[in-house]
Amino acid sequence: METFIDEKRAASITGYSRYWFQQKRCKGGGPPYMKIGYTVRYALSDLLDWMNSHGIRRSTSQAAPEPRQQGTEVRVLRTMVGGRERLRLIS
């Protein structure tokens, strides 16, 4: 079953701001998304694929990352804590 996340969670996973996601939805260049009524959702698998193909930049003080080499990818570790699903990125 596919996991869908909201803009706030996508921002925390990627390190980009919610505003950045809003701008990319209007101007293009961001990860694939879907709208259900007024809500925006990102498929976790699509977000991870997008991150793997574009690299990750965690802060403005860091230089833009080099494109990831083939065979290196970002994965998600899913755990349940207190009845809530937690997602952790593993490079």
What is the helical fraction, as a range of percent?
25-40%
The percent range for strand residues is 25-35%
What's the Cα radius of gyration? 14 Å
Overall pLDDT: 78
Assign the structural class, choosing from mainly alpha, mainly beta, alpha/beta, alpha+beta, or little secondary structure. alpha+beta
Shape: globular
Distance between the termini: 23 Å
Query: What is the string of SSEs from the N terminus onward?
Result: EHHEEHEE
Q: Catalogue the unreliable spans.
A: none
Number of domains: 1
| Largest beta sheet: strand ordering | 1-3-2
Instruction: Note the total helix count.
Output: 3
CATH-level-2 architecture: Orthogonal Bundle
What profile does the largest beta sheet have? 3 strands, antiparallel
Query: In CATH's first tier, which class applies?
Result: Mainly Alpha
According to CATH, what is the topology?
A: Arc Repressor Mutant, subunit A
**How many DSSP E strands?**
5
